[in-house]
Amino acid sequence: MANPEDAEPYAVTSDAYYRLARRFMPGPLTVILPKKDTIPLSVTGGLDSVAVRCPAHPVARALIRAAGVPIAAPSANRSGKPSPTCAAHVIEDLLGRVDMILDGGDCEVGLESTIVKLEGDSGILLRPGAVTPDDLKEVLSTLTVSKAVMAALGEGERVLSPGMKYRHYAPSAPLTLLEGNEDAVRAFLVEKAKEVGVGILCFEEEIPLMPKNATLFPVGKSADLEAQAHRLFAALRDADNASNIRQLYAHLPSKTGLGLALYNRAIRAAAHTVLHID
């Protein structure tokens, strides 16, 4: 959508929707609303709801305005692979499969939008992003975080949002996430970095600690969650493009603030493989 009110012909809006729109749109927020019959089930994957978003990027907004109608589109990458954050990533996945690739520069945030499903004045967080749970709680009466944000879906449970699959955003090489004592984790990474075929998604301050021949994919400083969000998918793609990488290691992100979005993407990229280091 170019503007929040453009949802009216296609979705059942509410006061809660417009409160969210006034606060976060245009921006990295997707709101799931009951759909109207003007939206075919083929667009919503058979669901009786539709996801509404007003992007902030000027190129995206100009494209929607030029189309004259809302645009329904999947992510610009092949299923399961790390999400694209620049046109070069889209070319890697989709060159020859689409008629055109529109280059609007690097993504500002680097992670996909927050997805919240509205139920009356309450919301269910289906995918965390730059709009954090605390942000949403300032607008909605209550907010529930779907268990699928941090854990794998159970047998037979239906995917309600992109990224809720057990393994998603995944690099070609297996990724293991590390949690535990910070010094012990860094010592473990330094030792693993000596091995042939091992890649490390590391913080910038860890680079001087690593062996000179280590294969490193920096994701920003440990305290800079915005930089980590901006770099995560690019780092995973860099790992895919590196030669002879058979195993990747990275820190397990926190579950607070923007960290929850990083945790959500990382845990799925690793297929929930977490190693505790004492």
What's the short story on this structure?
By secondary structure, the protein is α/β, with parallel strands linked by helices. It has helices spanning 15-24, 41-44, 58-67, 87-94, 133-137, 182-192, 225-241, 259-269; strands spanning 29-34, 49-53, 114-119, 122-127, 142-145, 175-180, 198-201, 215-216, 247-251, 274-277.
Describe the structure.
There is one protein chain. It contains eight helices and ten strands. The radius of gyration is 20 Å and the shape is globular. Helices cover 27% and strands 17% of the residues. α7 runs parallel beside α8. β3 and β4 form a beta hairpin. The chain is an alpha/beta fold. It has two domains: 112 residues, DHBP synthase (Alpha-Beta Complex); 103 residues, Rossmann fold. The model has no long low-confidence stretch (mean pLDDT 92). The strands form two sheets. The protein has a five-stranded mixed sheet with strand order 2-1-3-4-5. A five-stranded parallel sheet has the order 8-7-9-6-10.
